[in-house]
Fold this sequence. Notes:
This protein has helices at residues 14-22, 36-40, 48-60, 73-80, 86-116, 120-146, 153-159, 167-194, 207-227, 236-256, 259-264, 269-284, 297-319, 321-343; strands at residues 31-33, 162-164, 290-291, 348-349. By secondary structure, it is mainly α. It is globular. The two termini are 32 Å apart. The site of one fe (ii) ion has 7 residues, from α8 and α9.
Amino acid sequence: xxxxxxxxxxxxxxxxxxxxxxxxxxxxxxxxxxxxxxxxxxxxxxxxxxxxxxxxxxxxxxxxxxxxxxxxxxxxxxxxxxxxxxxxxxxxxxxxxxxxxxxxxxxxxxxxxxxxxxxxxxxxxxxxxxxxxxxxxxxxxxxxxxxxxxxxxxxxxxxxxxxxxxxxxxxxxxxxxxxxxxxxxxxxxxxxxxxxxxxxxxxxxxxxxxxxxxxxxxxxxxxxxxxxxxxxxxxxxxxxxxxxxxxxxxxxxxxxxxxxxxxxxxxxxxxxxxxxxxxxxxxxxxxxxxxxxxxxxxxxxxxxxxxxxxxxxxxxxxxxxxxxxxxxxxxxxxxxxxxxxxxxxxxxxxxxxxxxxxxxxx
Length: 362
Ligand SMILES: [Fe+2]
Ligand SMILES: [Fe+2]
């Protein structure tokens, strides 16, 4: 595990913000590229009915006018932002930058696939999803610009490192991140709906309709995987297990580095993360034949351990020198062992439902 918000240099200037977005650590959102020829060969004909219905929803574009600020937005920013402590402001900025990077990561990947395939189904899907993600990233960037910390997205696209993932890894990881994105946004929205006094920035008012886009993006990958059932069988079940754990563990450690953010919303990071895991696990039964038991005490203890190791690693990094380096090595080993133990915990199997599509009902 690597840099955390708490250990990192504060974000004070536009160059710090851009640096934060471009850096690649274990915890920061990444940019991806993939095998476009394999994407081109995908066949969704076995789920044609559900696919076409989904395409009609994308075409209907019910969030077309959603990502516009209303008249009160600027007033709320002016009223609420000065009330944040400097530490809280840092956590919020970290949240905005990592959310933007992750929205923009989807935008770039979907756009590259769109440009590099001829397959009409995939091309059309990617066009719609890139459209949505570009709106999402742009909307977050407006809020960063309020702080004078806008991200130069063209530059980010050119300079950030890209990770190559085979299509099946893209499906597992992106499906999860879309559904987690939904679960995260809706959990925050529902909490602040109950406690409007804790809504410390107007952007959270947008989350309800916003997360329906993420839900639908996740549905698209669910249909692709269900149309290609070999992706959900045999040795691939081990990959699915790996990706669920990796995505959950990364989210847990990252969220626990910004406890104030959740506290300000009247949540604690544990409560928030386990709610998000439960929602995501429930949804993911539409496609994944296995699920992790995230409420098992050993699972929770394992995640707590990973966070403690990540903190120890940050302290070692800050200390530097030979001892610092050695300690970092020990931390890496301990993290790998803890991850391995979590990976080997028993999983729950699920029977895949006949109908793939679900509605965002949380
Ligand atoms: Fe998005
Ligand atoms: Fe999305």
